Amino acid sequence: MNQMIGSGAGQAIARSRRGYSRRERREIAAFHLFTLPWLLGFVGLSLVPLLLGLAASFTNYDGLNLPTIKIVALQNYARAFSSADFYISLANTAIYAIVAVPVGLALSLLLAIALNQPLKGRDLFRLLYYIPAILPVAGAIRAWRLFFGLQSGLVNAFLSIFIPGTAINWINNQYFTVLYLYDWWHVGGGMVLFLAGLQGIPAELYEAARLDGAGRFSLFRHITLPLITPMLFFQLIMGFIGALQIMEVPILLTGRGGQSGQVQLARDKFMYMVYTYSQVFDFQRFGYGVALAWVFFVLVLVLTLIIIGSSRYWVYYEVAQEGEAR
Amino acid sequence: MTARAVSTVGRQDLHLRMRRAVGRTLSYLLLLLVTAIVVAPVAWIFLVSLRTQSEYTSYPITFLPTAAHWENYFRAVFEYDFVAKAWNTLQIAVPSTILTVLSSALAGFGFARHRAPLRNVLFVLVLSMLMVPRMVTIIPTFMLFAKLHLTNTYWPWILWGLTGSSYHIFLFRQFFAAIPKDLEDAAEVDGCGRFRIFWQIFMPNSTPVIAAAAIFHFQWVWGDWVNPQIFLTAAKTTLSVYLQSAYQDPKGFPLDTIQLAAVAVYILPMLIVFFFAQRYIIQGIVTTGLKG
Question: How far apart are CA A233 and CA A226, in angstroms?
Fold first, then answer.
């Protein structure tokens, strides 16, 4: 290992001494040509907007006042941190994501394990479970509004069979409904991934453990779970980043979202991005809105770093053996 | 002695088989329950879309429609602006898909098959953009595009398409990195340039990943509500926005069943594409570890 690093460093030094060969230079030029469109987009359509947004968050920009724009320093941020809407929407979003993401991952894993057995109709189930993921949100939400409707909804009708006269206002109970929809939408995709992960676990491991007398639970606890943690870890990060950004679902669920629809949710049912969206596009508070978005960005970044930092306590990494192609 | 041993083995075997049967039954029950939960809302769209409005609002509700009112579909599509909005959606989705797939494949090829000093740093930037919350860039992008008079045009989608998307660059990079080097070497010996290697060797050998990327992206644009809502006005908007509020009678009362017929027509192409191309879609998810 040390030798490898040594020779690599030696090569690098040798290369920097004689510069790149013609072939290497051609390869570098080709790399930059192939990635140029992306690089232009990254700078023009990601980096510039990001920095522009950051700059705007220190101003009172409202979309029209460019000639008379004022720098307000940290006022937008101070306003966020002293606003009840900010804290309520942040707490709502955090609670919802903390429940929805782990529950969704657990369900995905459970279904993947169930489908990893030699059952009849396995491929059909896998196909069916992925359907929600391909439904366009804007279309499926219309169905969900009727599905969860107060009078004509199927859910209340179904529950009325057991408890006559059930009329739960699911749509206004956004916590539950949004959480349920998140998992309805995401469990299928997670299941496909976990299924691929499970099928990558060598069967010999299970056979050896079974010969040693390990039971089903202990097989899961000591083989399946550790070997699936790298995938679980990745899904947890991407899941949180996605779930915390929830915006369309609550907006469309309440039936706003037509061309002139302002977002009107009861204050205590706001999600963070719904609040941000509404501040920008309903009230033209661009400066304040981008400040909210940047606070969110930093919080998500911190959360991601915490999960990454925690990974060494629970994520199982196979150490690559010398000479193995890993 | 031997007889007793045999019978114990037999009993153990029976015990094992029974446990397996119970496990299998429980698995099937779970799978069927989840199937019902997943399929019910989708089936409900089609069942409600065939009713009259008064049948739909009557209480208590019925699970099956009394008669199939197929004219709801005709009305949803032809009495409203459905066709025009579908045309708008296609005008955005088709160029956007072609451009995104091409530019992402180019960048993916660059990252997968070339060594360059800055490669890893730039690739980390590609991946880190997957983690930036969408609104952090969308709000200032809107501010910028409004000043450049690009709002209420389809230019934003063209620009995004020309420069590729992180997700698809990652998808192509993973796929291209796994292609054996022999092919490339042989072509290089024959004097092929890098672009010809990309276009005549890598692309023709990558139809599954091209299909996956094209389907993912088309499906994403078709279903996206945020960008059309922010960047376009009513005349130019897409189906996803139009469907939210268009279906009302002249007095402003909602026509839910006709609207659901429109929703059914809106989601049907996605369902059909999925059933025919599920192999590629699932391959794409597994290749990246990301759900589209």
Answer: 11
CA A146 to chain centre: 27
Q: What distance in Å separates residue A326's CA from the closest CA in chain B?
A: 13
Specify the pLDDT at position B10.
67
Can you give the three-state secondary structure of A188-235, one letter per residue?
HHHHHHHHHHHHCCCHHHHHHHHHCCCCHHHHHHHHHHHHHHHHHHHH
What's the pLDDT score for residue B182?
A: 83
- Give the residue from B74, B84, B50 showing the smallest Cα distance to B64: B50
| Tokens describing residue A47 | 């980096």
Supply the ipTM of this predicted assembly: 0.84
Query: With an 8 Å Cβ cutoff, are B243 and A139 in contact?
Result: yes
> Which ranges of chain B have pLDDT less than 70?
1-10, 59-61, 291-292
Question: Which residue of A35, A107, A294 to mutate against B (max B Cβ within 10 Å)?
Answer: A35
The DSSP code for B150 is -
Whether B263 and B243 have beta carbons less than 8 Å apart is answered as yes
Tell me the CATH architecture of domain A75-314. Answer: Orthogonal Bundle (1.10)
- Subunit contact B31:A111, Cβ cutoff 8 A: yes
Mean pLDDT for chain B overall:
86
Judge if pTM exceeds 0.95. no
Structural domain boundaries in chain A: 2-56, 75-314
